[in-house]
Design goal:
Elements: H1 5-14, H2 16-48, E1 55-60, E2 71-72, H3 73-79, E3 95-105, E4 114-121, H4 123-128, E5 133-136, E6 145-149, H5 150-155, E7 164-167, E8 170-179, E9 188-192, H6 193-199, E10 205-206, E11 208-212, H7 219-228, E12 234-238, H8 239-244, H9 251-282, H10 284-292, H11 297-323, E13 330-334, E14 341-345, H12 350-376, H13 380-385
Parallel strand pairs: 4-9, 6-8
Antiparallel strand pairs: 1-11, 1-12, 2-10, 3-4, 3-11, 5-8, 6-9, 7-8, 13-14
Length: about 375
């Protein structure tokens, strides 16, 4: 025979004030942990969904990012003749010469400064991102026109269709808002390659070349062909791998969030332990009656430990419920690779919720073991005399 769980539930209800305070402390800790995991999960999802498995990014050897790479127009011409590159409907090789630079959009009414990546592309660059759609229209070749990612349009009041952005040598008109379906493209600004390269005094040395293999199975072979060509002196990586490497931007956030959660978890564990010790001290007669009724010390230990776990479970569930309204909330983080702002959506998934509940139960075990042990070792004679 075991002590009914209803006994523990009634005790928690009777001592509702301390119960609610303990549950609230654990809930706050769990919500911070789950929120941190959601941030990292959302950032990773944004990068890992970016890029096409058939695309290859070519940069200058030794460069880890497009913003630090220098590629010549001659190299672009030579790469188009490599076997295995896909061709578009007009029979032209699908190879896009591009320039990428980072700049800061100054604060305007309703917005703060925003670090963004500006990409200069041609028609082939748009064609290679066939999953990107635009509200409005694409920029015209040779014109000082831009399309902005939807996250930039949402977070920066000056980036609306018809508005003017000032950078480089003058004003640029926003003619469209592009939707990259939650990828890194949603945090970029695109314009005509020649116009942007001219504004930043880089007419001959650009940033990268994006290629498309005729088949995804040819990607490793094309990467080797590019890197083995001594004339090019270039490095190549699949577009998916390039974006996935940028998930390192979320590492400091993850470590800091974990640290805060652990510190708060220790505090919550001590608070819950103090509550359980006070509970044991106030229930000496009840413990004596349980012993008289024939319950063993081991059964009493399990009962009090179960009570601590119930407290923690309630706190864990409350913390998860408190953070759920923030699911798909748009957040932003400085990208350590591109030196620009990357926006993404919080992604609260089953694994982060389970991690939060498991963390709450761990707090319950840590905070409940010693008080439960004290309750189980209370002397029967001493308890009856009290």
């Amino acid at each position: 025979m075991t002590i009914p769980v209803a006994y523990n539930l009634r005790n928690l209800v009777v001592r509702r004030t301390t119960t609610l305070m303990t549950v609230a402390g654990i809930a706050l800790t769990v919500s911070i942990l789950v929120g941190d995991l959601a941030l990292v999960s959302g950032l990773n999802a944004a990068f890992r969904s970016s890029g096409d498995p058939r695309n290859i990014l070519v940069m200058s050897k030794g460069s880890k990012a497009e913003v630090t790479s220098q590629i010549s127009r001659q190299m672009h011409h030579e790469l188009q003749s490599i076997p295995g590159i896909a061709k578009n409907e007009s029979g032209q090789p699908m190879a896009s010469l591009e320039i990428v630079t980072a700049l800061t959009l100054p604060a305007v009414a309703g917005s703060t400064d925003l670090d963004v990546a500006v990409r200069g592309v041609g028609a082939s660059g748009i064609e290679l991102r066939d999953g990107v759609t635009v509200n409005g229209r694409w920029f015209r070749s040779g014109q000082r026109e831009l399309v902005v990612g939807r996250f930039i349009a949402e977070r920066y009041a000056g980036a609306r269709i018809g508005s003017q952005l000032r950078f480089g040598r003058g004003e640029w008109e926003v003619v469209g808002i592009m939707d990259g379906r939650g990828t890194a493209i949603d945090s970029e600004i695109w314009g005509d390659l020649n116009q942007i390269s001219s504004d930043f005094n880089r007419p001959n040395f650009l940033s990268s070349i994006l290629l498309r293999a005729s088949d995804a199975s040819l990607v490793p072979e094309l990467i080797r062909a590019v890197e083995d060509d001594r004339r090019l002196n270039a490095a190549a990586v699949s577009e998916r791998d390039y974006y996935e490497s940028q998930t390192m931007s979320g590492a400091p956030l993850q470590y800091f969030g974990m640290f805060v959660a652990v510190v708060m978890g220790v505090g919550s564990a001590f608070a819950a332990m103090n509550t359980m010790y006070a509970t044991v001290a106030r229930r000496t007669r009840e413990i004596a009656m349980l012993r008289v009724l024939g319950f063993s010390p081991g059964q009493i230990l399990v009962s009090f430990l179960s009570e601590s776990l119930l407290l923690s479970l309630a706190g864990g569930l409350l913390g998860c419920l408190a953070i759920l309204p923030f699911n798909n909330f748009t957040a932003g983080l400085g990208n350590l690779v591109t030196f620009s702002h990357t926006a993404f959506q919080l992604h609260i998934n089953a694994s982060s919720v389970l991690a939060g509940i498991a963390f709450a139960l761990l707090i319950g075990v840590i905070s409940g073991c010693l008080p439960a042990r004290l309750a189980s070792r209370s002397g029967l004679a001493e308890a009856l005399r009290s």
